[in-house]
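Handout, tutorial session.
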Amino acid sequence: MTASKRPLSVTILGFVYIAVGTIGFAYHATEFWGAGAFRYDTLWIELVEAIAIVCGVFILRGRNWARWLALAWMAFHVVVSAFHPFRELAMHAVLCALIAWLLFRADARRYFRGAPVEPT
């Protein structure tokens, strides 16, 4: 038997994490020297964006810890958006639920577990 194939939904989600992290990292990199002084808050934002890239790469490589980190990354955004307008909180909550569903469906669990594929 062969190792489980990566589900399309997991592939797409991995690339979305990489894209979101990369775009966010590039966007916020310009904010390091706001008002002529180094901004430490931007350093934390960049770290969060780098974590998204790491999640995406290792989701594509089938690492189980990466799917948990990806879900925690999105849950973090739900908590942070609680201090913003309700619409933002609702959107992050819906995205978090969708990501959890995609990463913990039966086919995704088999992929991250590295279980053999059953003959069809």
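The second record follows below. Compare its token runs with those of the first.
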Amino acid sequence: MRVAVIGAGAGGAAAAVELTLAGHQVRLWNRSPDTLAPFMERGGVDYEGVLGEGFVRPERITPNLVEAMRDADAALVCLPTISHAPVARALAQAGLHHVPVVLNPGHTGGALEFTTAFRAASGGPVPAVAEFHTLSYIARKYRPGSVTISGKARFLRLAALPGGEAAVNAAQTLYPVSERVPDVLNSSLANLNMVLHAPGTILGAAWIEATRGDFTFYVQGMTPGVVRVMQALDAERLAVARAFGHELPALGAEMQRYGTVEASVTDTTDLVSAISGGKANQRIKAPDSLSHRYYLEDFGHGLLPFIELATIAGVPVPTASSLLQLGITLTGTNYREGGRTAEAMGIAGMNCSALLAHVRGPTSNRS
């Protein structure tokens, strides 16, 4: 398959490695030439970790979006969710509605926001869009031109909006571990980063500022108090999912299925031990500032859209609401401005039934 990997951060670099190794024709794109420069100088991507160690040479590495998408069978968007709307607009302005799009990941409301932004920019048809619930890799770029892949998904929730079958087919071709779920509410409400990151970044903020993140987020930062807040937030996530007709696994069980909690763990409710013992995340440092992605992404594009969905579902979410307000106060950033609001997702004014019809199609069976 000819696939344009949109984004050359750690996730995009990891995707370029795995998909090239799998025999796909990969084009690697990033808006910033500075991000691409180390890869362009090498002519490819050095890698180490769970995929082995070596070097891959994608078919094309370019900061030109049209060039990256030329003759592509699919676009795999491996960007922070704060970049979904800008990329959608860029694709729309280039007239690229015919190429299926897979959001890796969509997180909470990704496919909804992407299609809303695309339609507003194009004024016409939108591409087939599918989303994974989380990124398919645990990866970091510790050196220029290189990616360290410490974990790879054993399972990915895959969902699409109505008309998205071409994107689903592309996603399953690229990632055979993906499993189709009923709708994008299922995948959106399985976004665990919101649960994993928001409590720790709020409760560990003083430590983050004092040490510039010089501690392991999933080990040293995973204290009993932090976990109690995570469990309260996770209970709200499960309640909202249930209101839309989805019974989702709790945090520890879902992480074990993905692969970031070890298969040998028998009690996934003991989150301190289960999470801190996960080998894929053990080396990951805490955010180095209050402007880190864990704040920018997981508050305005995680907690905020979750609260919007909870409001439509009629489910109170006091923990999520409190964390969002604390995040706004702590960082001095109003995540509601430019965040993934109901308006940005194209679902403002909908009730539960209308939203289910929107994500499943008007003639589908709904809970």
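Points raised in discussion: The CA atoms of residues 198 and 287 lie 11 Å apart.
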